[in-house]
């Protein structure tokens, strides 16, 4: 791509990931570590090329902020779907940690503005930042809407220390599950490793002012719309729309 940029004499808008930030401590999952390492190496090559470029770092990208629509469900939908249906019984992550996600329409509109305005230079974080939900809030919202979306309420997952899970629960209980369930649970639990102890930095407030973009959509509403689209697509018979979103709280929430 760098060779093409130089030959064509054009600018490069390089899409990386927000999880190159040092507050993302993923080092114990080989696949996750390889992914982040490849992104850091890609950024290094772009910076050292000497060619005109802009580095854009989106966090987890989910469906549309208003409709939840997405071409293909991502790992985020797997995790939130398992929580909403009560099938994720254990979460090996602190409830105070943050899980950062942004809707695809926000990312698409922002990147389009970068290109339209030929904004070359700088490194920009397309994240929820301080507006990111904690794990506790995300779980509470999933539980709050489970009855409406799937037709019945569910039990909250048990939160355990990641080290205890890796040493005791993972090797003892996971092998007892059917192989298909094992694969689903392993994938879901690995995705909890994208949670961070501190909010990721965000460039959206600056870009909102510079580009005249509309205010970023509510993270809570974005989550609910994605849950609704997921439930409808997966064939659950709960009620869609008619949203009465309240402050994320649930007496049966995680602790």
Beta fraction: 5-15%
**Uncertain segments of ≥5 residues (pLDDT<50)?**
241-255
Number of strands: 9
- The top-level CATH class is Alpha Beta
Number of helices: 9
Average pLDDT? 86
What is the helix fraction of residues, given as a range?
40-55%
Q: How many distinct folded domains?
A: 1
Helix/strand order: HEHEEHEEEHEEHEHHHH
| CATH architectural category | 3-Layer(aba) Sandwich
Write down the Rg. Answer: 19 Å
- Walk across the major sheet and give the strand order: 1-2-7
Find the CATH topology.
Rossmann fold
CATH superfamily: NAD(P)-binding Rossmann-like Domain
Largest sheet: number of strands, sense, barrel closure: 3 strands, parallel
Write the layout of secondary structure elements.
Layout: H1 2-8, E1 12-15, H2 30-48, E2 53-58, E3 60-62, H3 75-84, E4 90-91, E5 98-99, E6 101-103, H4 104-116, E7 123-126, E8 133-134, H5 135-150, E9 158-159, H6 162-173, H7 179-191, H8 204-211, H9 219-233
Helix pairs in contact: 3-5, 3-7, 3-9, 5-9
Explained architecture:
The chain has 9 helices and 9 strands. It has 255 residues and is mainly α. The protein has one domain: NAD(P)-binding Rossmann-like Domain (Rossmann fold, 3-Layer(aba) Sandwich). A 3-stranded parallel beta sheet has the order 1-2-7, sandwiched between helices. A two-stranded parallel sheet has the order 3-6. Helix 3 (75-84) crosses helix 9 (219-233) and helix 5 (135-150) packs parallel to helix 9 (219-233).
Structure characteristics:
mainly alpha; 255 residues; disordered C terminus; two-stranded parallel ribbon; globular; Rossmann fold
């Amino acid at each position: 791509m760098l060779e093409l940029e130089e030959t064509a004499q054009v600018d490069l808008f390089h899409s990386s990931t927000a999880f190159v930030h040092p507050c993302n401590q993923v080092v114990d999952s080989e696949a996750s570590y390889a992914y982040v390492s490849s992104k850091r190496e890609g950024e290094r090559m772009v910076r050292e090329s000497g060619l005109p470029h802009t580095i854009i770092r989106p966090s987890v990208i989910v469906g549309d902020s208003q409709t939840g629509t997405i071409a293909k469900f991502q790992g985020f939908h797997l995790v939130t779907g398992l929580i909403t249906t009560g099938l994720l019984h254990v979460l090996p992550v602190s409830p105070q940690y943050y899980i950062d996600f942004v809707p695809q329409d926000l990312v698409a509109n922002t990147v389009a503005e970068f290109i339209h305005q030929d904004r070359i230079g700088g490194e920009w974080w397309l994240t929820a930042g301080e507006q990111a939900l904690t794990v506790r809030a995300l779980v509470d919202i999933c539980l709050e809407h489970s009855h409406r979306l799937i037709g019945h309420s569910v039990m909250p997952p048990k939160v355990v220390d990641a080290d205890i899970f890796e040493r005791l629960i993972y090797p003892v209980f996971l092998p007892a599950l059917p192989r298909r369930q094992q694969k689903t649970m392993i994938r879901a639990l690995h995705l909890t490793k994208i949670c961070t102890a501190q909010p990721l930095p965000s460039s959206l407030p600056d870009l909102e002012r510079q580009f005249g973009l509309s205010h970023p959509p509510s993270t809570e509403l974005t989550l609910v719309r994605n849950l609704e689209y997921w439930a409808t697509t997966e064939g659950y018979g709960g009620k869609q729309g008619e949203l009465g979103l309240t402050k994320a709280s649930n007496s049966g929430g995680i602790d």
